[in-house]
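Handout, section B. The chain below has 286 residues.
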Amino acid sequence: MIERKFVNQNIKEFEIKEYIRNNLSRVGLSDVKLQRTPLGEKIVISTSRPGLVVGRSGTNITKLTQELKQAFKLENPQIEIEEVMNIGLDPNIIAEMIANSLEKFGIARFKGIGHKAMSDIMRAGAFGVEILIGGKVPSTRAKTWRFYQGYLKKCGDVAVSNIKVAYASAQLKSGTIGVKVSIMTPDTVLPDRMKIFKEEESAVKIEEVKDEAVKKEMKEKVKEIEGKKSGLPVEEKKQEKKPAGKAPGRKTDAKSAQQRKKQADSPKEEGDADAIEHPTQSESEQ
């Protein structure tokens, strides 16, 4: 079945990663990624000490590739090395450093080792950190010591997906000492933190123009712009408006007045003409 094929593939990837972690000890190993390419399997190793992984003239890498070919039957494994820039935010490297320090200096200095690692993580910019050291520390009875600082989520989706956790172990005479490091990185987005955007105030201020000369210039410019829009200059536009509105009315008034005078004078003239042509009876009798 196809499901079984995917399960076997993931099991093989896990075994390869564990094999590399066990062989590359004390080199600041952070993560191992396996990518499948057309040329073969590509293995990306992230570490804080790439020189120790490569070895002198590449002896360590060539040895590791040969072992991977034989142990896991890989055709053409290609190993690529990446350097971790910010060591303080990587829990795998910090846990390995604590375990190595406990093996080197013993149980007596476990508090100083824990506080130093905690301060290094907070100095790197983390929101919060928690370090647990458990085992026969410092007495014969097993106990867990907790070192914590800052803000660290313990429940919810943030605690599951955004908190980086790593484990390591130190082999001492008294027994095995376990180390757990939890780091809340600065790029964690918390759901209860809200960002309020403020409205930007307009920086434009309206100033009153007090000079009369400036006001006149502004008015003239406005008139010129209006004249350009209409297609005629402002002065010619005014001159054309005067005869168009007032002259026709005056002419009609003058004509009507002359006609009225003629109508009023015409009956008088006709009456005088009749009087001249037809004299009265008294004048004829005389």
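Note. Confidence is low (pLDDT under 50) at residues 244-251, 268-286. Compare this with the example in section A.
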